[in-house]
Amino acid sequence: MNYSFKSGYYKEGNRTFIKIPFNVWEVCGKKGNLPAKVVIDEAAFECKLIPKGKGEYAIPINKDVFNKLDTGSAFDVNFTLLEQLARINHDSPYNEENPIRNIDSISYLKQPSDGYCGQACLAMLAGVSVDEVVRIMKSRKWQASISKVLETLDYFGFSYRKPVYTQGKKVQFPKCCIINVRSCPKNHLLVYFNGTFYDPTFGIANDYQYENIINYIEIIAAQ
């Protein structure tokens, strides 16, 4: 079912939202973080509606969408609830039986600028350019969340295990993994392969500051 209304926007910190002017629990009959297809004026995108309590919800608007809008007037907004958001890997030519490549080596790639470490890590694993990963993920600076990283691993046909939390201790890493490191302003990702750390910011190293490591995700390359 399609739900329509007119509304302006509001800010919370660095984020932009549109408040849904009705009780979503009562009107839509659903609760929780609700996946939806949203159209604001002529800008269409998918997102999860964010609950604010007692049936009040807001629509998050990313910067790319917001820049397309005429902020001088109220928006025409409509949304349709979805069973799930379209995943990055929904039209992938790869799968676990036919991954993009067998990871038997890593060619180092430096991230083009701050905020692209996740994309650079995936590009090193897949053997493609950072620009190609950005295109597949549809995620730019600071947008490579762990969930999107996992979806992109699915796209490339790489199998992987759940994150392992190291609690700052020195551990024996598996042959290939993505490492999540505590950093500012966002956490930082790098690749570990066969005894070597490939950091998209700082380069190649044979050791790392283990106390800064949060967790790692083992990548299981096809044999």
From TrEMBL:
<protein>
    <submittedName>
        <fullName>DUF1905 domain-containing protein</fullName>
    </submittedName>
</protein>
<dbReference type="Pfam" id="PF08922">
    <property type="entry name" value="DUF1905"/>
</dbReference>
<dbReference type="InterPro" id="IPR015018">
    <property type="entry name" value="DUF1905"/>
</dbReference>
<dbReference type="InterPro" id="IPR037079">
    <property type="entry name" value="AF2212/PG0164-like_sf"/>
</dbReference>
